[in-house]
Amino acid sequence: MVMIDWVSAKIPFYYPGIISDGEVVSVTRDGEVEYAVRKRLLIRGSHDGAITLRTVEVDSDGNTVLAELSGNPVKFLQGHNLFGSDDLLNLVAETVLRLAEILKAPQPDQSFKMVRSGNYTLSRIDINRMFALGSRAEVLAYLYAMSTNTRTRSQGPVTKGTTVYLNKTSKRWSFKFYSKAQEAELKRNRKQGTLDIPTNLKEWVNAMLRAELTLKSNELRELNLHVAANWHTIETLDLFADYAERIEMAAQKPIDDLSDLIQKISTKAAVSSYQLWR
């Protein structure tokens, strides 16, 4: 199962006035204003999950009619992203309804119809998938093995802590692999107001390797997936698998599937690598 983990989009959204958290202004040394950029307004949803929003276009009365949305819709709506949905259009529509409720800005029928039908543009989408590896030690072992045994055609792996990045500096797409249990334990995910994860879910996530694919604006345009409505025409899992196949072993052998990658890195070798990691 895959899920949408991040969305950046320009969406039809009505608000009486301007949505922003102030402005960043560039002023010349002579005191002339060169330009001003609206800052994104952070809007909190369920259990401290948040979305940012800011006005992009206004009508003749100065009211917002197009807004830039960015964030994790699943976390915003349900308070966690241990699991979720790959139904992009419904996720964004439900997010818009929740934002409208929080901002006390009911959406005009025509505006919301455009959201429902996917009549808006995307600049970033994150898709993730989880793999069960048995234990956290095995997850960390595989991550270490990936950091030395995998690459894409143009770039080798980059690591930060136990997280492994592939194609990290690409302006088109990238992968990130990490221990979901470790990520859930980060301080930012344990602060007051965040959802308390039940013990059985903590045990379940302990053995999970998460693979996260980011598709950026240029790639979305090339795929003709920058228009949200076009996501009706694809299977998200197939799209994810297509990019997973671009990951190669160090010997330049393509990976048919991420599950295949996990099988190809032997547990014995990975565990011995993990001892070095520690």
What do these coordinates show?
- This is II/X family phage/plasmid replication protein.
- InterPro entries: G2P, G2P_N.
- With about 280 residues, the protein is an alpha+beta fold.
- The protein has ten helices and 13 strands.
- The strands form three sheets. A nine-stranded antiparallel beta sheet has the order 4-5-6-1-7-12-11-10-9. Strands 2-3 form a two-stranded antiparallel ribbon.
- Helix 2 (about 90-100) packs antiparallel against helix 3 and helix 4 crosses helix 10.
- It is globular, with a radius of gyration of 21 Å.
- The model is unreliable at about 265-278 (pLDDT under 50).
The main pleated sheet reads as:
9 strands, antiparallel
Radius of gyration: 21 Å
Class of secondary structure makeup: alpha+beta
Q: Could you tell me the number of beta strands?
A: 13
Average pLDDT rating: 86
- The H/E string reads EEEEEEHHHEHEEEEHHEHHEHH
Produce the secondary structure layout.
Blueprint: E1 2-15, E2 23-27, E3 33-38, E4 41-44, E5 50-58, E6 64-71, H1 73-78, H2 88-102, H3 109-117, E7 121-132, H4 136-149, E8 150-151, E9 158-160, E10 163-166, E11 173-179, H5 180-184, H6 199-205, E12 208-216, H7 217-222, H8 236-244, E13 248-249, H9 258-264, H10 267-277
Antiparallel strand pairs: 1-6, 1-7, 2-3, 4-5, 5-6, 7-12, 8-13, 9-10, 10-11, 11-12
Pfam families: Phage_CRI
Domain Replication-associated protein G2P N-terminal: 3-232
Protein name: II/X family phage/plasmid replication protein
Key features of this structure:
G2P, globular, 278 residues, G2P_N, II/X family phage/plasmid replication protein, nine-stranded antiparallel β-sheet, 2 domains, 13 strands, two-stranded antiparallel ribbon, disordered C terminus, alpha+beta
